[in-house]
Amino acid sequence: MASTIALMASIGAAQAKSDITVALQLEPPHLDPTSAAAGAIDSVLYSNVFEGLTRFMADGSVVPGLAESWEISDDGLIYTFALRDGVTFHDGTTMDAEDVKFSLDRILAEDSANAQKALYASIASVEVIDPLTVKVTLSEQNGNMLFNLAWGDAVIVAPESIETIKQMPIGTGAFKFVNWVQSDKIELVRNPEYWGTPAALESATFKFISEPTAAFAAMMAEDVDYFSAFPAPENLPQFEADPRFQVLVGSTEGETILSTNNKMPPFDNPLVRQAIAHAIDRQDIIDGAMFGYGTPIGTHFAPHNPAYKDLTEQSNYDPDKARALLAQAGLAEGFETTLYLPPPSYARRGGEIIAAQLADVGITAKINNVEWAQWLESVFKGKDFGLTIVSHTEPMDIGIYANPDYYFQYDNPDFQALIAKLNGTTDPEVRQNMMGEAQQIIADDYVNGYLFQLAQLSVAKAGLQGLWANAPTQATDLTAVSWSE
After folding, report:
1. How far apart are CA 390 and CA 408, in angstroms?
2. Distance between CA atoms of 18 and 470, rounded to whole angstroms?
3. Exposure of 185 by Cβ count < 10 A (0-12 exposed, 13-18 middle, 19+ buried)?
4. What's the CA gap between 451 and 445, in Å, rounded?
5. Sequence-separated (6 or more) residues with CB below 8 Å from residue 377
6. In the beta sheet, which residues pair with residue 260?
7. Of 226, 237, 348, 386, which sees the most CB atoms within 10 A?
8. Residues 430, 395: contact at Cβ < 8 Å?
9. Element (H, E) at 256
10. How many CB atoms lie within 10 A of CB 3?
């Protein structure tokens, strides 16, 4: 009898290893990645539930997704995609060329809510050749098109799902959405009809834990199996010393910046923006908010990218110079402004440090701690802010500075022309030089306060394998994750 009980317990333990509980700091505002700027949506759904024509891998490479191959015309204007056969949405309907056309047309529609619509503006038309062939014609060359189509903003959705997509997402991925208990969890189960390699995990539960102390407690108690982007870096040494856990340290695409409202006085004065840049001690912020994890940046570009230019010295910490610049701008007595801080610890902790640094040169930054949905509404959409701190986790997204309606409202026609030219250039060496020029322009204009490249710090139970150490896009890809025997 005892041996039977032991065997049943062993079987139960084995069965428990087929699911996973993942913790994230931010909960999505809704579940449609094609109509919001919130990376928290992709953190749950990218690759797991939704897929695009192309996709990012853990090393940042772009590989075929729902398109198994493509041909590009000699002039670079026509992309003909061959779709995978036998792909179905989670509701059982077939995914075909009509769905691709619908998804891309929806991005470009006049009433589109897609946060990255500008990335796809060069798409002139989408034509269905047959159920498994789509022809995408561009109005001008775009060397980033396959890269852009890998973003979560370009996943393929079914027309029938749009009315309820924000609450009940239906994709083609290896996992199906089951349930969302707001402020608590999102549940996924393995898709038995998946077109590709089936997921090893039978189910996945995403829990949302915003407070660093609660994150530490939940992980230590083993209430969660994996905390992606762990928000309490000061606790990592304890996990590293504990054989129950593994610590993953990687890089992200997250340029963490002190975003500045370039149209709001006095930030419309470049001298004021330059003063702010010299008032900031990046290393103090990295040490104080991230406990040493993070790479200083002097422009909006990832240091691991081959085209990166190290421009940190151009905005080095020099409070005396910051005060002189403020005096030159007619603000020798300083001024007051707002500093909006969303929930991530890099923002809340970093914001306290930056407020003190700004105060040292005469700038009083009144801190407003806001929830993510409020930040999206008032800062990102409403542009009602002076300063804010946020990590831009979209891959190679310097092109956002070419959009004068983007929330920090930088309007430079020369920069816009450069990005337009870059988008139409396919030669790798020429593109690299142009990306360097783009970095220099926004550094020269001190558009924002460039702080550091966010490190990807995650904690997992020792038996988990197949996790992404790096974050080439904001995702928690579970499609290749499994428990070791």
Report:
1. 12
2. 24
3. middle
4. 16
5. none
6. 387
7. 226
8. no
9. strand 245-260
10. 7
| CB-based contacts of 421, cutoff 8 Å, min separation 6 | 434
| pTM of the complete model | 0.79
SS3 helix, strand, coil % of the chain, rounded to 5? 35, 25, 45
Strand partners, 206: 22, 186
Contact yes or no for 362/333 (Cβ under 8 A): yes
Cβ–Cβ under 8 Å, residues 55 and 63: yes
**Are residues 251 and 453 in contact, defined by beta-carbon separation less than 8 angstroms?**
yes
Residues 436-468: tens digit of each pLDDT: 999 999 999 999 999 999 999 999 999 999 999
Tokens of 15: 């069965």
Q: Which residue has the tokens 């789509």?
A: 134
Residue in the structure block whose two tokens are 């929330």: 407
- CB under 8 Å to 249, separation ≥6 — which residues? 293, 455, 456, 457, 469
Cα-Cα-Cα-Cα torsion 339, 344, 349, 354, nearest 10 degrees, comes to: -40
- Whole-angstrom CA distances from 460 to 35, 190, 213, 235, 455 are 31, 21, 17, 13, 16
Q: Are 280 and 354 in contact (CB under 8 A)?
A: yes
Phi, psi (5° rounding) for residue 396?
A: 40, 65
Measured distance between the N- and C-terminal CA atoms of the chain, rounded to whole angstroms: 26
C-alpha distances out from residue 89 to 68, 171, 186, 326, 411, Å: 17, 5, 19, 57, 41
Tokens linked to 190: 């393995």
User: What's residue 16's pLDDT?
Assistant: 52
- DSSP class of residue 401 equals G
Do residues 48 and 173 touch, judged by C-beta distance below 8 A? Answer: yes
How far, in whole angstroms, is CA 48 from its chain's centroid? 15
Low-confidence stretches of the chain (pLDDT < 50) are: 1-14
Residue corresponding to tokens 């038996």: 463
Q: How far is CA 439 from the centre of its chain?
A: 20
For residues 217 and 197, give the distance between their C-alpha atoms in angstroms, rounded to a whole number.
35
CA 78, 81, 82, 85 dihedral sign is negative
pLDDT in tens, 78-99: 999 999 999 999 999 999 999 9
Q: Which residues of 118-150 are buried (b: 16+ CB within 10 A; e: fewer)?
A: bbbbbbeebebeeebbbbbebeeebbbbbbbbb
Q: Which residues contact 13 (CB under 8 A, 6 or more apart)?
A: none
d(C-alpha 418, C-alpha 271), whole Å: 24
